[in-house]
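Hi R.,

As promised, here are both runs. First protein below:
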Amino acid sequence: MNEDNLNTTDDGLTKLTIDPEVLAQELAAELQGDPLDEIDLETLDPDQAKIASDCDSGLKWLQQGHEERLQGLRVFCEHRDARALPLLVPLLTEPCPVERMSAVYALGRNPSPKAINLLLQLLEQDGNAYVRKAAAWSLGNYSNAPVMKPLIKALQNDIAAVRLWAASSLAEVGLTSTSNADSVASQLLISLGIDHEPVVRSNCIWSLGRLFDRVSTDLRDEVGEVLISVAFNDVEPSVRDEARIALDQIDSPWVKSRMKSLLEEGNLM
């Protein structure tokens, strides 16, 4: 899953913010970057006593003023605590885009059924691209909710910063059933073929690799063929590399045999 090569201050993102100058000042002064870049998606702090203390402080901050709420939101972007849910959900409607964005990330770390409709509304309607990007990421943690169609729409129509996270979150939706896997994979294949942003294509590949064993047999063959084609035909080296990584991880005798033949023929560098 790749976001390294995306410039989140490109023209598309700047034009879609509510107030670019004010948002830039808010981000610089209050968040020092995108919270998604700071969230550890794999591990939690092993010091349980410190976590408990941080969460207690975070709960108090969420009930205070703007600056304190931002401090509290930072806490729950990192830690899970069910006590925070009633305080986080109302912040999705805050007028400050920094608070909305941070609340969206916190509710990705701390999923709440009560947040789904608001998160979907933000993904589809929020005028701030940072908020929509956060929603695209967070909705991957709500894979059993009706989030597939909105994420597909975002992958089709939004800016690259949102599309790349929609592609990744769709993998979680696809893993819930073969039917969903087929629907998601079909769209990912389309986006892989037409999206002009290498990072979006790379994330489509990452998701297709995760879904390979879940899709129906006929579609599995198509996914394998497309990934093999991308592995030596895509114009972007990083995308070719992502396809090769995905293919290496796929447990399919046919795919492995095809890749071996291509390597022996010198078609893959």
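And here is the second one, sequence first, then its structure tokens:
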Amino acid sequence: MSDPSSNRAAIQTRDIERPSPDLIAALSGIGSATAAGELKRLGIRSAFIQGPVASTAGASIVGPALTLQFMPKREDLYPDAEYVDPERQLHRHALYNTQKGDVIVVDARADMTSGVFGEMMMTYFRGRGGIGAVIDGCIRDSAEIKKLGLGLWLRGVTPNFHTQTNIFPFAVNVPIACGGVTVVPGDIIIADDDGAVVVPIALAPQLAKKASEHVEWEEFARLKLAEGGDLRKYYPLNDAARAEYEVWRKTHPR
């Protein structure tokens, strides 16, 4: 019998460079809609991952992306059985570097017949501190996985295992295309009930500043609109409303 540790040592997959906790904290609470809108103003036309939808109602996460790429099945490149030579199956290695606050993002080619991860894999991911998964494809064991408390953005679910039909895991922590958006390892994912948005790491500090300002004036506008204020005045703020806002923010520091 071969030594599993020797198989694992034969495969090298790199870790990601993670943003500072302060940057993650600054992006927390702004939401995917604000992030998508502000990123458009920063030059990113669409950072929205299309296809995977929120599968755990109310979940809201912000964290760096671990990435996993699947490719079309080629039997000469990958064993057909579920548990053959498990340490050569790269969907496992995608999780080995998990740290607290990480998000796993998977290009599963929008395949609806392969369960990228099951309960055991996601239990491991959660135990390592992972907070969410964005998968352009499916999981299996969905009922059990939802009990783990992870944020999940998925195309669907299936009883099939990961290489049962059309795809196989090909690369870990490389740039991927997930739901029509390029995701570079270490980019920041902001995801909630509206969906998942990719924040290019180089733009994250600018987004944090812009989005914080946006959230603050929207809070003021929301209060005024709830009181019956004029939509034309308060959303967006016109000059008169902005003068009111500046007075309000001095007495309502965040």
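A quick note on the second one: The mean pLDDT is 91. Let me know what you think.

Best,
J.
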